[in-house]
Specification:
Oligomer: homotetramer
CATH superfamily of the largest domain in chain A: Formyl transferase, N-terminal domain
Number of helices of chain A: 8
Number of strands of chain A: 14
CATH class of the largest domain in chain A: Alpha Beta
Number of domains of chain A: 2
Shape of chain A: globular
Mean pLDDT of chain A: 95
Largest sheet of chain A: 8 strands, mixed
Low-confidence stretches of chain A: none
Chain lengths: 289, 289, 289, 289
């Protein structure tokens, strides 16, 4: 499941469902010398769409990225009307972190990066507050503060976007970034911004979900990691998890228990993205195994 | 936790929080010869309210129900402005079941009754359809069919209410009863009607929650048992649980997986009520341990 | 995931891992007109073994069972040294139930059968005690009692085996059958006897697992459904699940909470078998999705 | 549940079960001006032992630690033969961390300390390897390396013990410390050493539990935090949790998924200890709510 060997490539594709897709793709790959490591496919019968993820070893594979693109297009993609992405896994993804004042997700993500648990680079941290600059410095990551107001959002996001592009960022992670992200950023990074929301969406979307959960008297709280879209807290869900609470838990206790969930659910969502296991279709996320 | 010995009594109470309540109540009980079996208390600091459940053995206890009522009122309740209920656990509760066409919860509840797992009586089953009459007959429980339309609801519910009262029903369980319950019944059985809703409330309240969950692309589905109030699917929650799903699960698969959850969450909610572990305050349910 | 359409066939196979298996199998199926509904494959890299499950629609498929067997053998199986099974899903499996005195799993399984939730037949119930005969009769299933002692086991099991074979039983389910099953039965039904063990195996194998769990002070209890082999409680695991407990839970409370787990874990294990999702390799169970 | 207000004291006690204990203790506290914040009691009927945890506000409480000790002893403890501990919550506990080469738990614990999530001090880190010295330095915590061999264990542990005592350490945490701890340390810190074991104990005690879990083909893996006793991996369990795995997960995947569990289960175990919610009796841990 993990990228045990970075000398692999991953293909993600979907197309109208019809007989013979798996046979055609696997024959194509085998024909160019691919040793397939993972293959997972899914048919959404209600939509009539076929989805597939294949990962294979690059050693012995005859095609470089350009040659693959040309050959796959003419042999498979045009025939099956497939939409596809090819990823070479040797290059670590470059992940930018957005934070505000809460540190728990930031510490968790930086620990996974620094310890080498994740095959990523973290070129920069962006915040709308100075609060967490010392944590960034302790881990040796450049920290950029862009205070946001209703008046300056578009301008500040344009500057953030320029910074992200200059650092060749692949993925932006909102690690409890308590600020609405506008179209300037969202349009520039489609399905490449992951947010953690501190509730079991769609329950308790919006602000103060722990207060709302406490007021409603639920017996379980949750967290949700999802791709960010223009609709607040309504983007395609990657991962969710929950934890049990009781009437004894005050709002403060929910916040404390929820933080552990947020760390875990955000990390799992990012991991699925890093592994190229995710494919978004009609606001839902296929998470291949 | 279970009523291992039915020769016990349970006191549920709440009052404004102030020092000395536990001391006063336990001294009162000890003074009349009670051997306390369970004691659980909770203080809601935000509301300033004290909650307690105490269960004690009746053997050696000096007061019968009437004497307890008089003594407790003058010694404790008036002083602390307590609201309280006393339950003798020897008598099995009388539980009526409301069903429509789906049988999974009905089978589960009847099995728990017939096997003696639960210390209850099931005097009757009420339905708005004939579909499940054979199941009722197989288990030897009288089955009453009241078809409901927009026009006849009040009238039919009045007849149901009369039937429930005639059978001295303590608790009505809506075991996937696909029909809105109106004020005629709700007002007659406050905090004595338990419903199972097939979602993780407050997400996906109302009709067709599995369809809505599938459309939203959630990664976890849930079920909720709650007391029925005038606000649809908004009554005090007793118990919730969840199960993990993936993009592979069609709506039909969610229905199938959800049914197992519904059985479990409804049974746990009823069990807590039977054990007199529940106390409702401001639309939230304290579930004592 | 469910057999939404029984007009399908399922192929389960494994073989030494080498390039081209998926391509060969899917090309073979497509070439005979199969529309593939599900395909899941897995490579065990440590063992160097390839596993696959494919399900396709029989409508339009050119081969009957015999023709498939011949064509698949010569085209695929010999070349890849594959071990394989083909199942036509139209025929309901015939499932025998073994019980002793506890009824919770029996009620649950009979309810799933009678309600039509499962596409199975239940030709008979076997027990070593008379206790549950009334439940069998209530559901209209023949009940056979074979009291077992150390002296008569082989003889009684031979009679049971004869009965199972006479009723063309496909699957035997030990639904809290509190009796060791010997080689007479195990050898006759390899990977076709499913047991529920009331612990999280391999913890607390053997007798009285709830007592052992209580004594050890664990904070979580579990249940395990597995195929029965000659090694007691050591066969290939199909499904496990757990539930949280606390120091408040007596052994009796563990038994009560555990029973709900047992019902669920046994039902899920059987479901996976009925769906032909399971494949045993070296005492581990692949459960395809 | 959390120590929202450190100006509180916590009493943990147990005694032979007999009527009137709660009444006596709460009357005693109320009589000296205590406002009780939490009270949780438990009766182990099989053992005939009563357990209680009470927490109250120190503001307005008439007794200092010494006066409490004298008054409680004569008024309550002697009469009821109670074993008890009193903790003032204003003082942060001093927690030493033991590590080897794996960093995930270390990062997690240091993050909780540095962010102020936990009301603790971390005076030192002890390791049998140099590997994690840079992490300790990054967080500004003194790091002491004591390589252990079969020959020098007693001597090295004596030095470690001296160091812990010199730093007035209250609690030692084995954060994936891959080294057996001997009697020199265990005897000096009874019920004050917490270990994380990377399995669902008692399954897979000892070395390489993920390899053993993979070989057995379990469908769920777990982690266990427990107090360390002379019996390896057999001390009183504080907290356990599990995560679901499939046949797709290699040993490496189990290790990766397990690490997130280990972090969480160790943190929860420590939190319960810090909150003075734990009381050990006969190798089992009461965890009060």
């Amino acid at each position: 499941m993990a990228v045990d060997n970075p000398r692999t490539a991953t293909l993600l594709m979907h197309c109208p469902d019809r007989p013979g897709v798996v046979a055609a793709v696997t024959r194509f790959l085998a024909g160019h010398g691919a040793n397939i490591v993972d293959l997972d496919q899914h048919v959404d019968r209600a939509e009539g769409v076929f989805f597939m993820r294949v990962r294979w070893e690059l050693e012995g594979f005859a095609l470089d990225a350009e040659a693959f693109s040309e050959a796959f297009r003419t042999t498979i993609a045009e025939h099956f009307q497939a939409i596809w992405q090819l990823h070479h896994n040797a290059r670590p993804l470059r992940m930018a972190l957005f934070v505000s004042k809460m540190s728990h997700c930031l510490y968790d993500l930086l620990s996974r990066w620094q310890s080498g648990e994740w095959h990523v680079e973290v070129p920069l941290i962006i915040s709308n507050h100075e609060t967490l600059r010392p944590v960034a410095e302790q881990f040796g990551i450049p920290f950029h503060c862009f205070p946001i107001t209703a008046d300056n959002r578009a301008e500040q996001e344009a500057a953030e976007r320029e910074l992200l592009e200059r650092h060749a960022v692949d993925l932006a992670v909102l690690a409890r970034y308590m600020q609405i992200v506008g179209p300037t950023l969202i349009d520039a990074f489609p399905q490449r911004i992951i947010n953690i929301h501190h509730s079991f969406l769609p329950a308790f979307a919006g602000a103060k979900p722990y207060h709302a959960a406490h007021a409603r008297g639920v017996k379980i709280i949750g967290a949700t990691s999802h791709y960010v879209t223009a609709d607040l807290d309504a983007g395609p869900i990657i991962e969710q998890d929950v934890t049990r609470i009781t009437h004894r838990d005050s709002v403060e206790a929910l916040v404390r228990k929820g933080q552990d969930l947020e760390k875990l659910v955000l990390a799992r969502g990012i991991w699925a993205h890093l592994q190229r296991q995710t494919l978004v279709y009609q606001n839902r996320t296929i998470v291949f195994s």
